[in-house]
Amino acid sequence: MIFENLKPYLYVTFLQFGNAGLVIIAKAALNNGMNHYTFATYRNLIATLVIAPFALVFERKTRPKLTISIFFKIMLLGFLEPVVDQNLYYAGMKYTTATFAVAMTNIIPAMTFLMAWICRLEKVNIKKVHSIGKIVGTLVTVGGAMIMTIVVGPTIGLPWTKGSTATDQHQSTTHVSPGDNMKGSMMIIAGCLSWSCFYIVQAITLKTYPAELSLTALICAAGTLQGSIVTVIAEHGNNAAWRLHLDAGLVTMVYGGIICSGVGYYLSGIIMKAKGPVFVTAFSPLSMVIVAVLGSFVLSEKLNLGRVLGAVVIVIGLYLVIWGKMKDEGPPNSKCDPNEFPSVDQQIPVSISSTKLGKQDNDRVDIEMPSIDVTTKK
């Protein structure tokens, strides 16, 4: 029982670890010349090949019928995240930095919360304390991510970071011109908006097509088809863009396809059915904390006070969101629902046998709701 309750939290934490790892290796691959158009196409092709067999086997009896409405929703899903978001996000990363790209994704919770509120996928009652807690928690989480990005502060000396030098810190930053920075920022913001829309449409689609594995495979297949068309148009005449090499680009495609697209879409669908789309995106700023911690251990990057302070604020914001979601669900209520009872004005048929009313003269029985007048005669 405890594990079942912890599943959504474990799944969403896994998603953030997966996304954080992809950002690190994708930036290195992009710097080495990886084409983001073919990256998105191959990534979704790999995800389709990996997930489709599981969907065919495990959901062969439970898969709903594919209607025209669901088909168009799947095509929209394949366009929003696999094509628009992935291409714009990684194109924007080429013009900026990995740290900036990760920081900008922290606007996704606020965007998703607003759209879920409008689409009535999220319960919000400003008269309830827990609803206010969800709103404040979302804003605090985004604010914590901004603190990690903007505030620097003094460096915190840790035993495992003493080997890092100022040269290492200098190499970790990239000089970006104001024009490229603006262009990259607009691309990343547009990609984040598309990503938020993807979560909303996915939550809506799951209500009529509750087959997570099949939906994941179809989304990735639709993304592969549409991404191929976009790549052919964008890279017309550049056949070299389609070539695969045993380098960081291939590792990024395999990792992104299996972990972030295949497993990621599947787990996000499971979480949405239990907690809603806002719960999934509320943990997005956690990836910044993961990148900061892993960077400290793996890359010996020095932590500063701004990152630590921002991480603490993010944890506080996530706690408020989780608390609000738990209050929304509420404990099991043993009281009867008054809506289950018939209305007072509803007529209830009453059958009364005259043999049971007695044998006395002029015996009279009065029954209310509804009022029935019964007189027996000898």
Which key terms come to mind for this protein?
378 residues; mainly alpha; two-stranded antiparallel sheet; 13 helices; 4 strands; globular
Task: Note down, in words, how this protein is organized.
By secondary structure, the chain is mainly alpha-helical. Helix content is 67%, strand content 3%. It contains 13 helices and 4 strands. It has helices at residues 2-31, 36-58, 68-95, 98-104, 108-118, 129-150, 166-171, 178-208, 212-234, 248-275, 277-282, 286-298, 305-329, and strands spanning 155-156, 303-304, 364-367, 372-375. The longest helix has 31 residues, at 178-208. It is globular and about 55 Å long.
What is the topology?
Blueprint: H1 2-31, H2 36-58, H3 68-95, H4 98-104, H5 108-118, H6 129-150, E1 155-156, H7 166-171, H8 178-208, H9 212-234, H10 248-275, H11 277-282, H12 286-298, E2 303-304, H13 305-329, E3 364-367, E4 372-375
Antiparallel strand pairs: 1-2, 3-4
What's the shape? globular
SSE run: HHHHHHEHHHHHHEHEE
> Whole-Å distance between the termini?
66 Å
- Overall pLDDT: 77
Percent of residues in helical segments? Answer: 55-70%
Our count of helices gives: 13
Structural class based on helices, strands and sheet pairing:
mainly alpha
Estimated share of beta-strand residues: under 5%
- Which segments are poorly predicted (pLDDT under 50) over 5 or more consecutive residues? 164-174, 332-348, 350-363
User: Strands of the biggest beta sheet: in what spatial order?
Assistant: 1-2
| Biggest sheet record | 2 strands, antiparallel
Number of strands: 4
| Subunit arrangement of the protein | single chain
Kindly provide the radius of gyration, computed on alpha-carbon positions and rounded to a whole number of angstroms.
28 Å
